[in-house]
Design a protein that fits this description.
With 164 residues, the protein is mostly beta strands. Helices cover 5% and strands 42% of the residues.
């Protein structure tokens, strides 16, 4: 079963076990609509009991987390939901998780590699592409460097910044 990362737990907020929560959903409060969330390894499950908007994030109370120490221990855990629970995207939309595994090609059809991951370190999304040589290519994920996303066709078209 494929899963999609919909949020990441940040720092503890206050002394009663609340955490800062960075949502990756279009509607930040949508993180509450999918029921129990799982850690990346699938070994931990989290239920959001309450959530409220805060500046650039949410503040959440998770079931069973009752003090600051417990909240601090959860920092940086990414929260996942089964892909099947998410709404079907429109024809011109996709989830980042749908891109992983797609073939990255130049406009002329030459294969550059395979999409390995999508990252965001704060300045926008980056595509991590694994070249056939094993090298890693990082490209900004925007319309200039990725003019075509064809999920159904299993490919994206990239305009590499350098000739790799």
């Amino acid at each position: 079963m494929s899963r999609v990362c919909i949020a990441q737990i940040g720092a503890a907020h206050g002394v009663r076990g609340e955490v800062r929560l960075k949502p990756f959903t279009e509607d930040p409060l949508a993180v509450t609509r999918y029921g129990v969330l799982e850690s990346e390894d699938g070994e931990r499950r989290f239920e959001i009991e309450a959530v409220r908007p805060a500046k650039d994030m949410l503040v959440a109370r998770l079931k069973g987390v009752t003090d600051r120490n417990a909240a601090e221990a959860l920092k940086n855990i990414r929260l996942y939901v089964a892909r099947a629970k998410l709404p079907k995207p429109n024809a011109d939309e996709f989830y980042h998780a749908d891109l992983v595994g797609l073939t990255a090609q130049k406009k002329n059809g030459e294969t550059v590699g395979t999409v390995k991951a999508i990252h965001n370190f704060g300045a926008g999304d980056l595509l991590e592409i694994e070249a056939a040589s094993g090298a890693t290519i990082m490209l900004p994920f925007n319309e200039t460097t990725v003019p075509v996303v064809d999920v159904a066709g299993g490919r994206i078209v990239v305009e590499p910044l350098t000739d790799s």
